[in-house]
C-alpha cells in the first residue's frame, strides 16, 4: 500500500520561469507528492488515477505532509459533516506544509463550494473540479495560482489512463458508474456528481482482468447505485449488471467479488440465483433502506415500501445461506414523529441486520428535504441517533454470537492496531474500512504472509468484531 494516499482512507517538474508582471509565480524545485483522499471509495479511485498520472510523469511519493513539494486533497462535499472534515484537512495541511509546498484541492467540495474555499483558504494554490481528474498534471505544473473546474462533475476512467492502486495488494475498488438517476429528497449527489454515467463493459473487463493479473484477490464493484448500471445506455432492470457479473465469473480463477450498493427493489430473483450459483460473489449486500415507516419512505422519495423491504430481507435470509446485509438509516428526517422513530427501532430488533450505518438527517441546501416543514431539532436527532446505535450494538453482538464455533475463510490483513500479539483479518461479511474485523489471537504462528486467506474458527463475539483462532 502506498502511504502517500491517506484516506480519512509525467515529465520532470517544470523549471522555474521568470515572473510576469502583476502575477504570482511559483518557484518549486522538488518533485515529492502527497495525497489525502476523503469521502467514499469512488473518490479514492479518482485519487489513485491522479496519483498514477503523476508517478508516470516522474513525480515521487512523500509519506509525510512536511516532506512534500506538492499536496493534493481530494475533498468530499456530500454532507455538512463531510465538508467540515474536508475544511479541517485543508487547514491542517496548510499549517503542516513547508513554505515552498504547493497545495492543490480537488473533488466534490471544489465543484460545489469553490467560492467558500477560496475565501476561507487563500493559501490554496490550485482548484481542480471533481470531473477534471486528468488535469492533475497541469494543476501541479501550473506556474501561477489557478483553477480548472469544468461542467464535468464526475470522472470515469476510459482507455489507458494510469492508476496507482493505494489499497493493500489483495483488494481494490472497481468503479463501474458515476452520478445518479434517482431523486431521493434528502440527497444532493445528482447535483454534485451529475446524471448517471456508466462505464463500458469492455473497459470494466479490461480493468477487472488487470487487477486479477496484479494479484488482487477481492474486487469491490462500486457506483452510487450498482442496480442502475447501464440504464443510461438503454438497459432495462438489472440486465446490464447481470450480464457484466456473468462475464466476470467466466474467468477461471479464485477471487471475491463484492457488490456496493444495491437498493431493495434491485435485489431480484435473478440476482439472488446468480449469487447462489457462484461462491465467488460474496453473500454480502449493502442495501440502503434509510427508514421503514411508509410515510417517511414516501417523503424521502424512496421506491420501496416497508412491506417490500421486509419481503426482500426475508427472501435473502431464506435463499442465500449466511448472507450478510448492511444498510444505512436516517433519523430525524423532517416530520419524523416519535411513533415513526419507534417503528424504525422495533424493525431493527425484529429483522436484525448485520451492519447499520446510522446518520442524523443533514439539511442540505439544494435538496427537496431542505424546504420541508417540521424540521427536527438537533437535540432530538442526537437522542434518536444514540438510542438506535445502542439497539444496533446489541443486535450486532447477538448476530456475531451465532457465528461462534463457525469456520470461516479469512483474509489476514496485518497486525491488530493495538497489539502486535494479535492479527486482524476479514471474512466475506466484512467490507474494508466500513465493517468490523476478525481479531486473531490464537494460531497466528501459522500465518506466513499478510493478504493470504486462512481457515479460522470463531471463538468469541464482540459488539462489532469476531475473535478467532487460525486453523490452517
Low-confidence segments, given as residue ranges, are 9-28
Number of helices: 12
> Quick one: how many beta strands?
20
Terminus-to-terminus distance: 26 Å
Mean pLDDT: 93
In terms of DSSP E residues, the strand content is 15-25%
Silhouette? globular
Percentage of residues in helical conformation = 25-40%
Taking Cα atoms only, what radius of gyration do you get, to the nearest Å? 23 Å
- Secondary structure class reads alpha/beta
Biggest sheet features: 7 strands, parallel
Summarize the structure.
The chain is of the alpha/beta class. Helices cover 31% and strands 22% of the residues.
Tell me about this structure.
The chain is α/β, with parallel strands linked by helices and 472 residues long. It contains twelve helices and 20 strands. It has helices at residues 41-56, 80-96, 108-120, 136-141, 189-193, 201-213, 239-249, 269-277, 294-299, 306-319, 338-350, 378-401, and strands spanning 5-7, 32-37, 60-61, 70-75, 102-107, 126-128, 146-148, 171-175, 177-178, 197-198, 218-222, 256-260, 281-286, 324-331, 355-360, 407-416, 419-426, 438-442, 452-461, 466-470. The strands form four sheets. Strands 1, 2, 3, 4, 5, 6 and 7 form a seven-stranded parallel sheet that branches. A six-stranded parallel sheet has the order 8-11-12-13-14-15. It has a five-stranded mixed β-barrel with strand order 16-17-18-20-19. Strand 19 (452-461) and strand 20 form a beta hairpin. Helix 11 (338-350) packs parallel to helix 12. The two termini are 26 Å apart. Mean pLDDT is 93; it is low at 9-28.
Amino acid at each position: 500500500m502506498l502511504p502517500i494516499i491517506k484516506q480519512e482512507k509525467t515529465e520532470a517538474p517544470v523549471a522555474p520561469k521568470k515572473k510576469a508582471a502583476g502575477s504570482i509565480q511559483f518557484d518549486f524545485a522538488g518533485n515529492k507528492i502527497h495525497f489525502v483522499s476523503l469521502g467514499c471509495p469512488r473518490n479514492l479511485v479518482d485519487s489513485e488515477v491522479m496519483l498514477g498520472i503523476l508517478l508516470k510523469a516522474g513525480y515521487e511519493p512523500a509519506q509525510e505532509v512536511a516532506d512534500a513539494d506538492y499536496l493534493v486533497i481530494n475533498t468530499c462535499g456530500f454532507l455538512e459533516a463531510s465538508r467540515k472534515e474536508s475544511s479541517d484537512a485543508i487547514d491542517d495541511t496548510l499549517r503542516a506544509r513547508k513554505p515552498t509546498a504547493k497545495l492543490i484541492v480537488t473533488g466534490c467540495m471544489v465543484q460545489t463550494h469553490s467560492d467558500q474555499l477560496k475565501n476561507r483558504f487563500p493559501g490554496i494554490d490550485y482548484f481542480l473540479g471533481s470531473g477534471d481528474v486528468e488535469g492533475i498534471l497541469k494543476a501541479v505544473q501550473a506556474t501561477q495560482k489557478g483553477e480548472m473546474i469544468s461542467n464535468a462533475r464526475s470522472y470515469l476512467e476510459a482507455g489507458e489512463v494510469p492508476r496507482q492502486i493505494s489499497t493493500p495488494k489483495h483488494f481494490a475498488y472497481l468503479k463501474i458508474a458515476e452520478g445518479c438517476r434517482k431523486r431521493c429528497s434528502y440527497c444532493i449527489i445528482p447535483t454534485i456528481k451529475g446524471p448517471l454515467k456508466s462505464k463500458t463493459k469492455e473497459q470494466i473487463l479490461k480493468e477487472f482482468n488487470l487487477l486479477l493479473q496484479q494479484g488482487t484477490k477481492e474486487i469491490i464493484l462500486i457506483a452510487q447505485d450498482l442496480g442502475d448500471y447501464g440504464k443510461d445506455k438503454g438497459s432495462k432492470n438489472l440486465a446490464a449488471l447481470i450480464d457484466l457479473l456473468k462475464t466476470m465469473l467466466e474467468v477461471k480463477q479464485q477471487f471475491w467479488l463484492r457488490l456496493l450498493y444495491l437498493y431493495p427493489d434491485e435485489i431480484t430473483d435473478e440476482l439472488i440465483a446468480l449469487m447462489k450459483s457462484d461462491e465467488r460473489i460474496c453473500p454480502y449486500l449493502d442495501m440502503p433502506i434509510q427508514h421503514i415507516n411508509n410515510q417517511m419512505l414516501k417523503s424521502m422519495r424512496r421506491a420501496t415500501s416497508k412491506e417490500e423491504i421486509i419481503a426482500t430481507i426475508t427472501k435473502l435470509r431464506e435463499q442465500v445461506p449466511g448472507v450478510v446485509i448492511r444498510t444505512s438509516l436516517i433519523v430525524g428526517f423532517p416530520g419524523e414523529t416519535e411513533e415513526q422513530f419507534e417503528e424504525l427501532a422495533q424493525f431493527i430488533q425484529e429483522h436484525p441486520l448485520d451492519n447499520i450505518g446510522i446518520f442524523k438527517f443533514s439539511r442540505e441546501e439544494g435538496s427537496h428535504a431542505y424546504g420541508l416543514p417540521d424540521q427536527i431539532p438537533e437535540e432530538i436527532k442526537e437522542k434518536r441517533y444514540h438510542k438506535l446505535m445502542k439497539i444496533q450494538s446489541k443486535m450486532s453482538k447477538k448476530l456475531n454470537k451465532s457465528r461462534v464455533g463457525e469456520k470461516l475463510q479469512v483474509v489476514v490483513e496485518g497486525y491488530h492496531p493495538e497489539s502486535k500479539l494479535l492479527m486482524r483479518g476479514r471474512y466475506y461479511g466484512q467490507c474494508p474500512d466500513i465493517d468490523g474485523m476478525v481479531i486473531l489471537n490464537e494460531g497466528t504462528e501459522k500465518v506466513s504472509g499478510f493478504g493470504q486467506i486462512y481457515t479460522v474458527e470463531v471463538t468469541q463475539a464482540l459488539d462489532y468484531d469476531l475473535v478467532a483462532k487460525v486453523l490452517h
